[in-house]
Request: fold
Amino acid sequence: MKYPDIKNYVGGKYIPSKSTKFLDVISPLDGSLLSRVPVSTKEDLNDAVAVAKKAFTTWSKVPIKERVQVFFRYKTLLEKHILELSQLVQEENGKTLDEARAEVEKSIELTEFACSLPQLVGGEILEVSKGVECRTDFYPVGVVACIVPFNFPSMVPNWTIPNAIALGNTMILKPSEVVPLSCMRIVELLKEAGLPDGVLNIVNGDREIVEAICDHPGIDAVSFVGSTKVAKLVYARASASFKRVLTLGGAKNHLLVLPDAHVSMTASNVAASMSGCAGQRCMAASAMVAVGAVDPIIAQICVEARKVIPGVNLGAVISAAAKARIERYITEAEQQGAKILVDGRNTVVKGKENGFYVGPTVIDYVTPDMSVAREEIFGPVISIIRAKDVDEALAIENANPYGNAAAVFTQSGGAARYVIERASAGMIGVNIGVPVPREPFSFGGWNDSKFGVGDLTGKSSIGFWTKLKKTTTKWNAESKTNWMS
Ligand code: NAD
Reply:
């Protein structure tokens, strides 16, 4: 085992869980054992919430311009340690080093945004009638809990940590039990940056601890990022105990390729979108709707896909079970009559025979009823569905229950606008296969890809992490009293 057993992190200290149950943390790169993560108990959570509650009484009173100083220093530390942090992400998640580095760079950008929050939460003041003024102030919500998935061990925790904490909340973070190591480095760097003990606490575990978070009366808000199945469970359960909740779920992103699309740009974008991070991105292209005569583009996508080499510029998928699941989807589509143009099954990387690799896979003549067309595969696989025109393509996109992202490839501004207005997704790309909004724009999908109001990052997140106080003040004693006095 490369690293010692993981502990929880409460009040600025590593605390062993009260549980004796552990799960193995395996590197997808080569199947080696990295560490063991405790399956924490309700008692572990109770201790962490008590600490976070106490820390809230002081942290929430620190002026925001002082609070963000921690994040200026944290940003510098992320920059200083970028190689080490990227290597850790790669080791526990299996993505390539370049992808891991890009993820840490995004964490830096998210932190940079949090540093700008004092400029965005000044509140408003207005003399609403003679001598009477109204003003608004943003107050932190309290103790917030953030539950994160395996696919971005650095970026997704940093979607919430800088904003929520800079806005005065204290936090319980529940890392993915599959990739818990990066979160442990994040708290160390934040401590070094001067974050007071107890403001950010980590409780490791799986389902049991997530359920305990949803039920805990001391937690005021819960954010979740993960699969739709669990996003729905967490939304319902945490709302039932009257918490503020925002849960981001899975995705099935459709790219609409129109006949006038630029061939090489479209092909390289589609191939990169479906294979980047081994297809384990909630923004990955999973279905391509080919409108009319686009065969030259499909041929070029296959050329581009063949340049994506497992173990070189394509990382591993998260587990042996994920590899088996992805390959099952491909085989099922083949049995149902789809045509496999590029086949990534049975991939073995020399020297990494115990790693979990699936090669890039392009499947043509998929029909909307096949499971590869309907379900989230979360692997480097693109299913091509043929449509006669853009309305049929939009009907296919609209029929899928998810709504994280969609994209259109065309050289016509009018056609692009037509798709933007009709696609049922929260994030749309025009000639962009992974349309992640950069800060300060916010991240969040529609339909079964998100439950709750507002988005989790950017300006839109301010509403989730704060409560607005409205104060009305009268300064003219001489004015007569009316119904609003
Ligand atoms: P997951 O839903 O299995 O796990 C997410 C978190 O929930 C983990 O911390 C896990 O411990 C916990 N969990 C798992 N099962 C649970 C249960 N039954 N009850 C309570 N808690 C449970 O997701 P994952 O496999 O870690 O991540 C991949 C999924 O996340 C994909 O569906 C992907 O699309 C989605 N995702 C979505 C976004 C987005 O922004 N919409 C971003 C990243 C990932």
The pocket of nicotinamide-adenine-dinucleotide is lined by residues 147-151, 156, 174, 176-177, 206-207, 210-211, 225-227, 230, 233, 248-251, 282, 376, 378, 404, 445, 449 (CB under 6 Å). The mean pLDDT is 97. The chain is about 40% helix and 20% strand.
